[in-house]
Amino acid sequence: MNSATYSIAGGDYENGGAASKRLKAILKKVGADPKAIRRAMVAAYEAEMNTVIHARGGRMRVAVDASQVDVVVEDEGPGIPHIGQAMVEGYSTAPPEARELGFGAGMGLPNIQRNSDRFSLRSTPGQGTQVHFTVYLTPQTAAGAAVNSVAIAPDRCRQCLRCLAACPTGAIRVREGGPRILEHLCIDCTSCTAACDAGALGLGADAGRERDAETVLVVPGAFLAQFGPGAGPEQVLAACEELGFARVRVLDAWEAALQKAVWAYAQDESEVHPVLAPVCPAVLNLIRLRFPSLLGHVAPFLTPWEAAREECEAARMTAVAACPAQRTVLSTPGLLTRLDVVSPAALYNELHARLGTDAAAVPPQAGRQASACDALQVSGIRHVVKVLDELEDGQMPDCAVLELFACDEGCFGSPAWTEDAFVARHRHERSAVVPVDGAAGAVRRTRPLTPRGGLRLDVDMGRAIEKLARIDALTRALPGRDCGACGAPTCAALAEDVVLGQTDVRACIHLEPGPLEIPV
Amino acid sequence: MRADNLAREIGAELCSAGAGEMAEIERVYAGDRMSDLLHEVDDHTLLVTNLAHRVLIRPIELVDVAGICLLNGATADPELVAAAAEHGAVVMVSPDGMYETCGRLYAALEGRKAGESRR
After folding, report:
1. Which of A24, A101, A107 has the CB atom closest to B55's CB atom?
2. What is the mean pLDDT of chain A?
3. Tally of domains in chain B
């Protein structure tokens, strides 16, 4: 990887673009595709000129490898008070001298977004603005971005088929060689990992890199409630602070900031009700896949982990991910994102040793303030699907904001934890670890969520329709017991697999011997 | 159409010498906002703009501009011309304003295409 930092002088129109020019030299040296170079240059030059026009000064940090170029442009400037407005084409606060030179058309930020594959914008009024974008240099990089993070250990599979029934999107097949996940259907929730007792489907374990005095540890609030009645969240947080990290931050801070922002959005901005809060990345995947008509209900903010991730460009971060969806969100950053994702188990032993086991139960602390917003929390994937189904049918629940979580009791119900969801939630709620982390903020989503296409039956639409008819007919010929013995969750899923050539119809154990009669 | 022939057809003066003159121009984009120009650039597009300032050097250096046409008989900055020569872009100066220049460019490019299709 090739990386460099260039400084940018504010107000120096004459030299504006010098940093981008040096980046171009690197890209040409590595032999990047001219089209990718052009996109990177448009984005880099726009970002650089924004610093020249609006700020006292700043810097461009770049990193290049064979697959992508990652750029952060940060400035010490006035910041952007309304990021939503700044992203609107034509909105500009540039001074007249910039406009005379053809800048300040209000197209800069939209242009950066259009010419990059990943884009984020963070700004603190009075302090500065940071633009981070990535341009993929090869089509393969774009296609290879992580889709899901459920870890599979096929040799542990006992073929119990519980995962088949548990998966809310029918994404699992259990055939010879253990479970297989169809990526285009998987929403990265924890249903299958919670159902699997054998450990064939799980979260994956990794110990993480060496920790140092510059790394910030970020843990979900639920993590602090996993160490028994004798170790309240305060004690666990204190123990975490002794682990050798520069600082420990709790994800609750970003969750609280998001909740506040969504509530304000629901009251002042949103034209549709209720507003869906982007709290759980697995639920967002579900909406994109199954309920795309509801995407307009989702408040335009990043999920808490995504918002936290945007801050770790300044300091290295170790994140404790509680579920596959969080892991996926955290593991698709650019080269300049200094982030290390670990599973909770990586820290359990060490913390248990520090906390001991025989302490007396911690008495309840002064209660947390009840939230003032009219939000309805729904947790557990079955309930979430039901509520979304009703919402799609036009049945509006009586609330302004809907917070949907794939796991029971929200993030307390992830199978990654050792404590029961209700126990952990209670312990968390009676503690006094209130998020006072002023730095954590809600981050506006700059790129709208898009529907996720399922599988196309065929690239040719005529043939796809033909296949659809065959799937239909075959489904009717199957017994309709949805027993799962064939390895597919339903008879319809088996029919689809057969027509797509993935398996043989004889995988069905209920079919009579002899030729199969398919009704037309 | 080749850039040098196009310049001759619209009565523009060529300011840069070199490979840029041989560039094949297939389309024209006219505008005075830098973001628009950057967004429309490719190696077969001639940019027509009232911006005659040296800031135009950057688009020439950073994205592969095929050519730039300045307007109203503006004086092309020597550094701009030098940058264009170095990066294989053509710089031409039209004696007319944007409306007339774009009219002539349209007639030259589209008229020729229409002539070709009739044949």
Report:
1. A101
2. 86
3. 1
